[in-house]
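Complex record, two chains
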Amino acid sequence: MKKNVLIIGAGGVARVVAHKCAQHNDTLGNIVIASRSVAKCDDIVASVLEKGSMKVPGSIKAYALDAMDVAATATLIRETGSEIVINVGSAFVNMYVLSACLETGAAYLDTAIHEDPAKICETPPWYANYEWKRREACKEKGVTAILGVGFDPGVVNAYAALAVNEYLDSVESIDIIDINAGSHGRYFATNFDPEINFREFTGQVWSWQNRQWVSNKMFEHSRTDDLPVVGQQTAYLTGHDEVHSLSQNLDVDNVRFWMGFGEHYINVFTVLKNLGLLSEQPVTTAEGLEVVPLKVVKAVLPDPSSLAPDYTGKTCIGDVVKGTKGGKEKEVFIYNIADHKEAYDEVGSQGISYTAGVPPVAAALLVASGEWDVKEMANVEQLDPRPFLNLLNQMGLPTRIKDEEGDRPLNFA
Amino acid sequence: MKKNVLIIGAGGVARVVAHKCAQHNDTLGNIVIASRSVAKCDDIVASVLEKGSMKVPGSIKAYALDAMDVAATATLIRETGSEIVINVGSAFVNMYVLSACLETGAAYLDTAIHEDPAKICETPPWYANYEWKRREACKEKGVTAILGVGFDPGVVNAYAALAVNEYLDSVESIDIIDINAGSHGRYFATNFDPEINFREFTGQVWSWQNRQWVSNKMFEHSRTDDLPVVGQQTAYLTGHDEVHSLSQNLDVDNVRFWMGFGEHYINVFTVLKNLGLLSEQPVTTAEGLEVVPLKVVKAVLPDPSSLAPDYTGKTCIGDVVKGTKGGKEKEVFIYNIADHKEAYDEVGSQGISYTAGVPPVAAALLVASGEWDVKEMANVEQLDPRPFLNLLNQMGLPTRIKDEEGDRPLNFA
């Protein structure tokens, strides 16, 4: 049994995490939110209190923290008695926060793979470059570290595990499809940190095909599906965290990730990329100022959290899993539909943040209860998906399944 | 009789000016090239010597100069005995260089309107905000200052004056059309300083219609013409220097400027503008760095002078002038065709730089000879166009005319 949660980060996802922790503070105990900007943490605390999200009277506090300062993070963990750390800060801080957890014994949860600011689209499997190097250390110290437990990666890994465990005898391919059919009404915006968002797409795109790593360029391959609720959508082969772990942890020939983009997004992205404005390498202006173009693009784009109030429409994210069952070919689509406006009404964030922020809180509840307190490092597909998906059904991210028997909710009661 | 030329600036246009001054150094005397970067000046000097552009043995020297330092510029003018200053530096330095000319008595020539770095698309007539405030000072001191004597503004002003003086009894409209039908083979590039280039288009677009200033947005109005050599081309109503002077100096109802753009240029421009990346106002990055987005865009785009070696195709720039002659409606198109590759072969710059750089040297020759040494401030349309266009016929920018009598060279011998 672990309790008391430290949330690292104060963006749109952290806001969802804070609200959802508050809604379960009878189990999770005290809540601490820490980021470089304490004002942003204060704002989230105020929102939690204002919306009456705290299930029972309890503590929720804001702290200023540079999460790259391992000693400062360890001290905050100890001083606040936090036994669970949910890291939803920048992907650049993962390894520092994990170090602080290894030092203090706190459970570590994150929602995205570690990134080095100077590198993009690293060699696969990416986890092996950073996180997995700490596997032994976690095991030795009995530290629970659950990697990538947002929606994608995270819930989609659980969907994959569920399909492999329960729906198919042999699996030929897992295709994860992420469609945001919502509209923010701006000329252009990214749904989370533009810097992290663009970095996913500017280099090579890795996929696992016929048990080999295949490299493509962004927008080189697409697929068009007629999906539940959101209808016909085109998605593009993209590199993504979960391809790097599912390929190693599940015995499957093909693992691919497909993200939906409209023509307008692709046009803006293409212009910026071709001009060199998405580069993470500094350029020097005529006046001698050294500046990273991508950081300037980030500075001119809307703050993703500012999109929430006007965001309408739905997301559809799920796994198309193909293989055989009882000697016959079978295909299942396990998925979730989320609604931007419903998310905003509940927790003040848009649907993308909602889908990313609810799962780590479900995971924290499973760590608190002991079901997922595995005392080692794990990707989500290595854990039992049933209690996780069961919690998500109750917490606002219901799972549905579509196969030859129809399209229906998936319950694990 | 004036002689010895100081060229300020060391970009693609300055290179053309240097070569053309060298080709006429029997009249113009010693040549000095000065800019912030003496290395760029040295490079131009080397190019002039290497191509054997000096007509007679003479002096050509490079100096480092901050042209915003009026005292330093005045000292350089005096120490080098320069009686003619050709300012083809940034449009931000015009008023400083003019001050140095007023102080020393040197003739002043430039090719673009003065700009305040903090302002774009100023209120019309733009010249009245800066240059024309020095009219009295020029007259008092007998300083010749010829404003905007590049191609456009410059040669097109002379075309307008010629049409008004010689081809029509009454003029209803002057439409200046600037088409670059060349290709540089890059994804995207501007033909001169991207900062100055984009600043022309990001704000409002002023035109003189029915004797009033009319404001539009860029790309709001277009016209498609079947033009000599370059064929059918679409051009867009744009603000431009010469509209601000022609409207005041000629007695004409309508003066408009139209610039040709391809769909790709418009798309890139539109994306950058809508994102805020063409803004001249600083933004602050997440790391706290204050930076002007437009300067970063400039830093990632190709250096315009680097385009020259691969540039192919032609430009067509001219004036469509409509009115009446002998009681009948008449329309003339007075224009020039320039070729990018021919320009590069002759002076090492592409055609856009060539069309901008040759005219101020023709003007300098007319100042040297006394024909245009008017001892006051003038826009080109206030001066006799015949000797100017006659010189340009000999210097590589021949004038042609197309009217009801056909399409033919225009000679003034």
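Note: The interface with chain B takes residues 187-188, 195, 267-268, 271-272, 274-277, 279, 283-287, 289, 291-293, 295-301 of chain A (CB under 8 Å).
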